Amino acid sequence: MSVLVVASATTEGRAALLEGVAEARRRATTLQWCNVGSTPVDGAAELLAGVEASQVTRDPHQDPIDAVLDVVAAGDVEVLVVGARRRSPLGKLVLGSMAQRLILDSPVPVLTVKPAAGAGGGRGSGS
Amino acid sequence: MSVLVVASATTEGRAALLEGVAEARRRATTLQWCNVGSTPVDGAAELLAGVEASQVTRDPHQDPIDAVLDVVAAGDVEVLVVGARRRSPLGKLVLGSMAQRLILDSPVPVLTVKPAAGAGGGRGSGS
Predict the structure, then answer these.
(1) Where is the UspA domain (chains A, B) (predicted)?
(2) Which of A89-103, B31-45, B94-108 has the lowest average pLDDT?
């Protein structure tokens, strides 16, 4: 059994990877991660230091959420970790369809995490 | 620090309580739980056996989600556990507004769990 992280190069995707590492330690298990974005995750190896981690390679033509759910359906995943955006100052944000679909369709529990306050609001924040 | 469970007498609310117990054990911490429904949770003491648990009493006139978020804001919570319904056979279900609000507004990670398949689709299933 392992922790499966829905990762990406965004601030949210990186927050998920960090929390996934903590979760794998708590559960004393391995970590799998799937990059659901189209950009490589810079520094993933450093983020994953200290856990036994493997990247799920996916068919780029397959819907990324279907790819994640296929891994879950294969039966070796005990929890999914996914990042979510913080609510905007105007409060208008609704939960992204990706997170919502995963929460609704995953047969295993889903841990939703947000980037630390001030960790950058968008894509590819440098540090 | 503790695990805070958003519980209720529904099948989902009881699933959250059960997963919360497992989560408190994994994190070697205490459990707090808040009944966001209007019906007592039958057999809560049995569900909570083996962890140090306390119930959050809330003002019945306060919005239950605000009550949960107030406890989180007080700073002693490391993860929220909340139940969600399974997608209906017709696939029409969207994530309940309670779960969505908690995921969007909680400053701490939220673990969303679903009842075991066949655990009853509604309220107050007997066993």
Answers:
(1) 54-114
(2) A89-103
Contact across the interface for B103 and A94, Cβ inside 8 Å: no
Q: How far apart are CA B90 and CA B71, in angstroms?
A: 36
Task: List phi, psi (to 5°) of B97.
Answer: -65, -30
> Hunting for tokens 């406890």 — which residue is that?
B71
The C-alpha atoms of residue B102 and residue A78 are separated, in whole angstroms, by 22
B112 contact residues in A (CB cutoff 8 A): 103, 109-112
**Stretch among A31-45, A106-120, B11-25 having the lowest mean pLDDT:** A106-120
Residues of chain A contacting residue B27, judged by C-beta atoms under 8 Å apart: 26
Label residue B72 left, alpha or beta by phi (over 0 means left) and psi (-120 to 50 means alpha).
Answer: alpha
**Phi (first) and psi of residue B83, to 5 degrees:** -90, 150
The one-letter code for the residue type at A125 is S
Query: Given this structure, which CATH class describes domain A2-113?
Result: alpha beta
The answer to whether A77 touches A32, Cβ cutoff 8 Å, is yes
Could you state, in order of their start, the residue ranges of all structural domains in chain A? 2-113
Provide the pLDDT confidence category of residue A20 given band limits of 50, 70 and 90.
very high
∠ Cα B3 A20 B29 (to 5°): 20
